[in-house]
Write a structure and sequence with these properties.
Length: 282
Amino acid sequence: MNNWGFGARALVSAAAVAVAAAAMTGAAFAQQAVAPAPAVEPVPQGAIPRATAYAELAKLPNFSGIWTSDRRALGNAGPPRPMQFTPAGQALVDAFRAKQAAEGVNQEAQQHCYPPGIPGVMNQPYPIELSFQPGMVLIFAEAYAQQRRIYTDGRPLPEDPDLFFNGNSVGHWEGDTLIVDTVGFSPLTNLTGGIPHTEKSRVRERIWLQGPDTLRIETTITEPDLLAAPHVTQAAFARRPDYVIREYVCAENNRLVGGEGGANIDLGLDEEEDPFAGLDDE
């Protein structure tokens, strides 16, 4: 792992170790492993002339453009099956739900404008934009202005990855389907409510065109200490040539503030104007 030398990044790495250590306690059950991507020799930088490299992109399926969620394209697929937890994972979920019932919803992430990470950023009610570069697929999510870089130049996944909100992604093509493997997630992001990512979390996405204007993504999440089986979800997106990606600045006019009782909304009103003033005292 890179030695960044910055306090904030060091804190994130330390938090990741603590979360992973806590998550690995308890019984662990075997689970189906995601097959590794086939090994491909990386292409040295500058080895392919620029014109040739861009010409190769024309041979790929046309994922380019702006897309919005379209569950109608899933037909009668129905809601996804719930996650199946190991005893250790279920203990985390039960503790999370008990705390939520006693104290209310924890809005710390929203207060600090933390992006949801993977897989959450792909499930937001905002458009995404896909584009290609030689050796890379880019996914830009309007929500939280998040950009994912999926390297398709043959590099392997990092063995000791730095921890990022969107992880570290590499991809390869199987016919017209893009296979994306992602590891190395920030412990500030979750597999699901109450289950933070750990160093064993892995996400595989299969991305393909169901038709000229329908994009499909199948997501498989594995974490052998917390999930009793791989968790698979399906998503569909409709191409929106008339859409534009708009600016998303979470911190602008964010009225969530922290306090002894957790995060709450501050409307910026004087006590005489605030219709909710004094409710906490009743």
